[in-house]
Specification:
The protein is α/β, with parallel strands linked by helices. 40% of the residues lie in helices and 11% in strands. A 5-stranded parallel β-sheet has the order 2-3-1-4-5, sandwiched between helices. It has 8 helices and 7 strands, in the order βαβαααβαβααβαββ. Helix 1 crosses helix 8 (160-171) and helix 3 crosses helix 4 (56-73).
Length: 235
Amino acid sequence: MSGPPRAVLIGPPGAGKSTIGRRLAQALGTQVYDTDVAIEKDTGRTIPQIFAESGEAEFRAIEERIVLYALRTYPGIVSLGGGAILSSRTRAALRGHTVVYLEISVGEGLRRTGATTANASRPLLAGSDPRAKYRELMRTRRPLYREVSTIRVRTDGRSPARVVTAVLGRLGVAPADRVPAPAAPPQRTSPRRRIRRKGGRPIPTDPGPLPRQSAPRTGRTRPPQDPPPAQETLS
C-alpha cells in the first residue's frame, strides 16, 4: 500500500515530533514513518556518527533522499527531522501535503533539548554555547517552518495527549472516528460458586491463583515496590 501521507510533522528539536507522531498514528489507526530512524536504518550509523564522520552536507543529502521517498510512498504519518525543511527540494515536495508545524518557544526548546548546558546531545547544538546555537537555529528555520506548514499547533505547556487532540481537531477527525485505546482486560463480575461437602468446609469451584509462598522473616515487613511507569513527555 502506498500513497501520500495522512499528515507530515515538522518542527525544531524538542517540539515532540517523534512522540506526537507515534500517538497521532495510533489515534488514526495507521503507522508513523520517522525519517531520522529511517536514516539510521538505511546507513547503519547513528545521526551523530554521520555528522562526525561525513559532515552535515552528507547527512542532508541522505535525509533529502529518504524524505522525498517517504512523501511519495508512505500513506501514514511522516515525521521529519528538524532540519529537513532546509532542502529546497523537500520544501517544494511538501506543497499539496497536510503539513503540521509543532511550534515551540525558544525557552521551552532549550529546556527540552538540554541545550541549557554544554553537553547538548544533538550534533548541531554541541559545543561551548548550545543556547546561542539553538536561538540561531530557530531564527533561520522558523520562517521555513511557517512557509511550508498548513496547520500550526503550539506545544508549550501541553501534554502529548493534549497536543494530539489539538492536531486531530485541526485535521477534522471527529472523536467517533478515532481509534480507541486498547481496552482493559475484563474483570470478574460474579462471585465464585461454592459447593459444600457433608461435614466439611466450603470448596470453591474456581480456586483462582495459587497463594504465594510465605518468605522467611528477615526484618523487612514488605518487599520493595517497583517504581511507577515514566510519563511520556515531549522532550
